[in-house]
Structure formats: C-alpha cells, structure tokens
Design goal:
By secondary structure, the chain is an alpha/beta fold. The longest helix is centred in the middle third of the chain and has 27 residues. A hairpin with a 5-residue loop joins strand 6 and strand 7. It contains 21 helices and 7 strands. About 40% of the residues are buried.
C-alpha cells in the first residue's frame, strides 16, 4: 500500500495558514463588525448568496427562532418592488409559504428604505439580510403585519470576500497609468532592499496556496449536500456571465438544473440534437425570444429560431414555470463578442457534449489522461487541455453572430476567449478538482493539480492586484518580475483581504513575518 498513488502527500502545505495561526490576534481585524463589512458587501452580493443558496440549508432558523427550509428562492424582480417574487419555503408555525422576499445587507435598511410605509411590500413573507444590526427578530410591513427575518451571516457556505472580489474587481481597467502608493511598510521595505524579491515571492506563493486551499475546503463541504455536477454547471455558468450577467446565468442554471436537462433530452440523441434542445431551453427560459424571431430576421436566423421552437416543444411538462426576461440581461459596456447570447450558446454546446457522460467527469478525465507531447511540460499540457475545452467551442450560427439581430460576420469569432477560459480554469475547475482529489484521496490527481497550479502564468491585472502592486513596487516592470504567476496574484488577493482592507501595517502578515525573521521554506 505504501507505494500506491493514494499515499502521496496533499496538494500544498499551508504555510500561510500556519503564519496566521502564529500571529493570531495580530493579523487584521478578523472579527470586523457588520458595519465595516456592510460597506463592501453590497446588496447585489447578498442577492447572489440568497438566490444561489450559498448557505447551509440544514438547521436554518429565522431570527425569532423558527425552523426554515427554503424550497425556492423566488424569481429575481428587475422592476420596482421586492427583490424576489413568489419564493417558496417551509416556516415553522406557518407551513408552506409562497411569498415575496426582500434582501438587504443590513436589517436596518428595511426602515431606512421606507419599506414599512410602502404597500407594494405588504406581500413580503421573508426579510433576508446578511447582518442584523437592529437586534430585533422581525420587521413590520405597511399594513402592520410582522415579517420574519433570516440573517445569512450565520449560515453562509461561500466566502463573502470572494464574492465581493468576483463582482466588484473582475476585469479591471487595462492600461491604467502606474501610480506608486506611498507610506506602506511593504513598499518602503521592498524598495529599500530590506525585503528581497525571493522572500516576497515565497510569501505570495504561500498566500496563494492558502487561498486555493480555502476554496477547495469550502467546496468539499458543499459536496456533502450537493451534486458535484450541478455545482460545476452553476459555477461555469456564473463565470460565463462575467461581472454584469453572473446573476441571470446563475438563475438560468438553477431553473434548468442538470438533472432536468438529462431527464428531458434523450440519451441516444446526437450531440447536435442535444445542443439544439439545450439552446432552445436556455434561450426560451432566458427570455431572449419573448417576441419570437426579430421582424427583420434573415433566412438563417428564421431557420435557427424555428429549430429552437421545435427543440423547446420536447420539454413538455418539464417546462419551468418561471422565466427571465430580456431586462435581466445587461449588454451595457460589453464588447459585442462578449454579449450574453453568445455565452449562453457556449454553455449549451459545452453541456450538450457531456450531458449524460458527465461534465465533471470530462474535466476529471482531461487532467488524468492528458500527456505532454515532445518537450512540452506536463503542467502546460494539462492547462492547454482544460483551457482548450472552452476555446474549441464552436457553433454554426453563434460563431458568426453577436445577437439574433444584425448581419452575419464574415469570419468566425470564438464563443469563449483565452482570458475567460483561463479564468474558469483557475477560479472554477482547479479548486473543484482539488476538492474532489482530496475528498477521494486521489494522490495522482492531486499531484497533477499541484503542477498545474504552480505553473499557471500571470493573468491580466484587476483592481486588487494592480493596487497591491502599486503599493509594493516602483514600477510595473518590477512588479511583473516578482508577481510572475497566477499563484502569486492570488497571494496578493489574500494579503489584501487579510491585511490591507481591515488593518494597518502593524497587523499585516507580511510585516509580522518579516520582522520575525521567517525564512518561509515551502514544501
């Protein structure tokens, strides 16, 4: 048994976590108040937590102590009134409840927003908040009814800071002029030579490892009560939504779960037939074809929309009762190549190819079976295989279109670009596969993922990494020499989260580790 792959060590040692434990009580303000957190966790993020059910379902209770089981988060309302319509939940003492849900970051917003004086909120059956800053268990509606309240901070199963970063900092502004941030210990020490690039690089590696391990641990907990296939499906859909359309993509994956798609679409159908069925479901439920084909549709569009109508008919009784509308999707500021309809088509093509064999199994197989060619490094071969799964997605209609309107393009455009595909590998596939490998004690898989993680190149900067680099380094060239990998960029995110956002330099892991003379030997 000693020589079997299962006996290989875990992916990464958590040196950064050991530093956090050693400096416990000194790093940041880890018990930050809801007032501080409320400034960064916007209501959009709380809505994502609620709709995506990123909270522990078992043992859920309202603030007045009644047992609660959420059956459906309801339908996101993009117009005036409550945030979610016709949510369904079981509430102790009330039975099955179908009602609207209003979401806030802080409980006090119910009153500061004036909902207690607005009749349109009289049908709200549950007030969902991240933090209860009122120390009261309920709120009151305009008609005098008592509305129960759920505080999510006690039950969240997804890192709130990660959600903040995904929604608030993704992308960043390329080409921003370099501005040195003065006054921070790390910058002074690095520029004076007191901290060297090798030591700093090792610290960033350790912080990046800690961030990845934290994500994998959170996913491993999700695996206990949720199917891995559905989790992966939702996370990929969410990532394809970019910053502006994450929520509608998440809703689409929730309303059309993988189990339903597998049940409706015949196992024996060909990939093209499966893809058409999924496209029909996604575009119909997504509200892209509310009024049918455009009035000025060209023959190709008319034919394609006809196939979608036929594909949708196959869903029959499995048709979901709730649907999105065109108003749910945001195209503002997006390049045409990134319009949501193209990403929906990409999701359909990807899922169709592995609908019954398993999307999760597909990526697992890619990691386990990909071999380098010639002098190619093993980690590069695995990375290229995973990224290629998205880059290779093609569609006879959508590869040549930006939307259902407009002219056909003269040449095909990728449904998913290089940067988005790499982002999905780093932020979705790597932590999910790592969580699986550790849960199942698959040493060979874990070893390959370690190689992939350590070999991932630097990605385009976002708001957090750019700000951190401007704090430490004199110029962009110097920053890129040290922060030369995705692993170290993730380390910058971890330092920002633990230290820069919540405390001064005297409470920073970098400061404390350097002053303590830590050599930071990584295994």
């Amino acid at each position: 048994m000693g020589g079997e792959e299962k006996d290989q060590p875990v992916l990464l040692s958590d040196l950064y976590g050991q530093l956090l434990a050693e400096f416990a009580g000194q790093v940041g303000e880890r018990g930050a108040s809801y007032g501080q957190a409320g400034r960064s966790v916007r209501e959009e993020i709380v809505r994502c937590v609620w709709f995506g059910s990123h909270f522990t379902g078992e043992g859920l209770t309202t603030d007045d102590g009644r047992r609660l089981e959420v059956l459906s988060p309801g339908w996101w309302n993009v117009e005036g009134g409550p945030d979610f319509m016709r949510a369904e939940f079981l509430l102790e003492g009330a039975g099955r409840v179908v009602a609207d849900v209003e979401v806030h970051t802080l409980a006090s917003s119910w009153y500061s927003h004036g909902h207690h004086r607005q009749p349109e909120y009289n049908d709200v059956g549950l007030h969902v908040v991240m933090w209860n800053d009122r120390d009261e268990a309920t709120v009151a509606s305009e008609n005098g009814r008592t509305v129960p309240q759920l505080t999510l901070s006690r039950a969240v199963d997804r890192d709130l800071e990660e959600l903040v970063e995904i929604i608030d900092v993704e992308g960043g502004a390329p080409g921003e002029q370099w501005t040195v941030v003065e006054g921070k210990y790390c910058g002074r020490a690095y520029r004076s030579g007191e901290i060297g690039p090798e030591w700093l690089g090792r610290l960033l590696d350790a912080a990046g490892d800690h961030r990845l391990l934290g994500r994998a641990e959170a996913l491993a907990e999700l695996f206990e009560n949720h199917h891995r296939e559905q989790i992966l499906y939702e996370r990929i859909a969410e990532a394809l939504g970019y910053k502006s359309n994450r929520m509608p993509f998440l809703q689409l994956a929730g309303v059309l779960p993988m189990a339903t798609l597998r049940k409706v679409v015949p196992l024996e159908a060909g990939v093209e037939e499966k893809s058409t069925a999924l496209e029909a479901a996604f575009f119909t439920v997504g509200g892209f074809l509310e009024a049918g084909p455009p009035a000025d549709a060209d023959p190709e569009t008319t034919t394609y929309c006809g196939r979608l109508e036929e594909g949708w008919a196959a869903f029959g009784n499995a048709t979901p009762q709730v649907r999105l509308s065109a108003d749910h999707w945001n195209r503002a500021g997006a390049r045409p190549v990134n319009y949501p309809a193209r990403r929906v088509a990409a999701l359909a093509r990807l899922c169709a190819a592995h609908l019954h064999s398993g999307l999760f199994n597909h990526f697992l197989l890619l990691v386990n079976t990909t071999r380098p060619e010639g002098r190619q490094r093993a980690d590069v071969a695995v990375r290229d295989a995973l990224v290629g799964a998205f880059l290779e997605l093609e569609h006879p209609y959508w590869s040549y279109r930006y939307a259902f309107t407009g002219k056909r393009l003269s040449r095909p455009r990728a449904l998913v670009g290089q940067e988005r595909a790499t982002s999905i590998v780093v932020d979705v596939l790597l932590p999910m596969l790592l969580a699986h490998g550790q849960c199942e004690d698959e040493g060979a898989l874990v070893g390959k993922l370690r190689g992939l993680w350590e070999g991932l190149p630097r990605r385009p900067a976002n708001a957090v990494t750019r700000r951190m680099e401007q704090t430490i380094f004199e110029n962009e060239r110097e920053a890129q020499k040290v922060v030369n990998s995705a692993r170290r960029q993730q380390g910058l995110h971890q330092l920002y989260r633990d230290c820069c956002r919540t405390g001064g330099c005297e409470n920073c892991v970098l400061y404390l580790a350097h002053r303590a003379g830590k050599t930071l030997a990584l295994t």
